[in-house]
Amino acid sequence: MKFINFLRSKTILFVFQISILSLFLWYSGYEFSITFDSTVTISQKRIIQFIANYILFDNLPGMFFIYFIWILTSLIPIFVHNNLKKAYSMNLMTFFFPNFFVFAFLYKISRDYFNSTFLHHFLHSFLLGAIIIMVSIGISLILRSIMKVKIKEQIDNLNIILKNIKSKCPNCGIEFNSTPIYCYNCSKIILKTEDNVGIKR
Questions:
Q1: What's the mean pLDDT in 156-166?
Q2: Structural domain boundaries of the chain?
Q3: Whole-number Cα distances in Å, 184 to 121, 135, 187
């Protein structure tokens, strides 16, 4: 529970999501190929390449992999917050971060590549972002309905328990929210049977 409360901080949750994505990328060895302009330095290439791996793909296996890691990671805020607005806003913020920087860096540093591929990559990113929103909203609504059913069942169970523990003194008629041994009103001993409550004189 303490860990869940710790994760609810936007900064912590963002770092956690990016860390999970990074672990997937590192373990799989996934790397998106970029044809940089000749003026781009090695250090600039490494930075852009690192960020691009989070969102860009150029083939079907790459698309499935990127979709898989983002949809899986988008589940974290859904279960942490159990709140529709907080879940999809957190997922959008995390998804926006690499998108903004990779397109901004490519526009500034590798303009030729940016101009030739921007629309293609932007449409792919837009579609992935839309799917993340739909997953966030859909699963959040499902969880909400499940929670409503569970809460209703708990209330029904509590009402049954309350009904079962109520008793009535057959001597003076006073009602109790429990089954006492003695009637506190007339001081008679109350005996509980399967059918009714009798009084031991």
A1: 73
A2: 2-160, 166-200
A3: 78, 58, 5
